Amino acid sequence: MAAVRVLLGVMVLLFCLAEVSSDFNIEEEISEAAPYAPLQLIVRDGNRRLMQDIDCGGLCKQRCSLHSRPNVCTRACGTCCVRCKCVPPGTSGNREMCGTCYTDMTTHGNKTKCP
Which of 44, 47, 89, 93 has its CA 20 to 30 A from that of 53? Predict the structure, then answer.
């Protein structure tokens, strides 16, 4: 009975070491694949997916700098940025570069939400 417990303990220990080792290999592959990538990849929650962490505040401030109502524009842009993980370049237009998430989002009045 004691031998079974020792064997079970060794198996759990080996499993834990294998998990840590595979996580290290994944991080190493990512850093080798894109050492020049300007966007930081982070792991969120327990689902272990890699997501881009972008500066929505700075990008939206630049996007809405020439808008007639910059506060309203920045608030809407921030919502779209958090949901779609994208802000189009420039101060207007180019909405298609962020895909359907950005172009199809509408307000309750059925107007386009994202600037």
Answer: 93
